[in-house]
């Protein structure tokens, strides 16, 4: 785990700190919850399942505690090298964590996917809490039924009904998560909110705009890579070259769109998001390229940092 050099501005004596891994089916709101707890956007979010592909550490620091949320891909059956890596990552991160926040969807209730995850968590010797998320989308009876079904999973010490979107129930959840942390020094400088390299964070912001605008197989077939970041022109915008990788020519056509409209719209929105992230003006040069079967290509996955 990357320790931060904390000499000088050290944490208070008797601080608590540790890693809480987020497990759950795709699309239940793990990344939204991680962002809400950190209080900043460390992970991209979308309404398409399988948005998160890497383990993302998000850091929340209080007066005498530091909670490192490990946002993870949704638990699913692997279909190719990409999803196999994603599942392996989930299992490895769960092993190394101090606790698990198992996220379920209060709007949909508990299903076979959740039962599968509960069995996966059983052998892990770490405390498990359940967050029943999206209560803003369910009525009282629905939430009560979900909480009851969550209880029957027989895996969690406590169950918290929450809405990551409205903030409802989040205070109690965070307090309880902090109480699970072992005593120890902080792992990160408090102002460092995530461990992701800058080029990955920026690529993810571009991918988020792709996910917003595409459907069916396209969101799953796209990855984004930053090819260069040039800050050499003093006073001028930072120049960033990014490439959207698609698997087929027809996906490439969709991503470019009629008269280049689609890639232009992705580029404009992504540039704004990147400018906000970096706090400076940016020139974004965005291209679309076909990389056949990249999801099955171990070498490309290595290069993309999907481990
Ligand atoms: N109404 C409502 N929507 C939510 C809430 N939390 C998340 N969402 C939405 O649910 C969708 C999925 O959210 P994500 O945070 O990307 O879900 P995830 O579990 O990280 O998904 P994967 O990374 O694909 O596993 C997005 O459209 C979110 O806006 C919530 O509390 N209420
Ligand atoms: Mg996610």
Short summary:
With 307 residues, this protein is an alpha/beta fold.
Topology (SSEs and partners):
Layout: E1 16-24, H1 30-38, E2 56-61, E3 65-71, H2 81-96, E4 99-105, H3 112-121, E5 128-133, H4 140-152, E6 158-161, H5 170-180, H6 198-213, H7 218-221, E7 223-230, E8 238-246, H8 249-256, H9 261-278, E9 282-290, H10 298-303
Parallel strand pairs: 1-3, 1-4, 4-5, 5-6, 8-9
Antiparallel strand pairs: 2-3, 7-8
Bound molecules: guanosine-5'-triphosphate and magnesium ion.
Any overview of this molecule?
It is built from ten helices and nine strands. It has helices at 30-38, 81-96, 112-121, 140-152, 170-180, 198-213, 218-221, 249-256, 261-278, 298-303, and strands at residues 16-24, 56-61, 65-71, 99-105, 128-133, 158-161, 223-230, 238-246, 282-290. The chain has a six-stranded mixed beta sheet with strand order 2-3-1-4-5-6, with helices on both faces. Strands 7-8-9 form a three-stranded mixed beta sheet. The chain has two domains: 16-180, Rossmann fold, CATH 3.40.50; 198-303, GMP Synthetase, Chain A, domain 3 (2-Layer Sandwich). α6 runs antiparallel to α9 (261-278). β5 (128-133), α4 and β6 (158-161) form a beta-alpha-beta unit. The model is unreliable at 1-8 (pLDDT under 50). It binds guanosine-5'-triphosphate and magnesium ion.
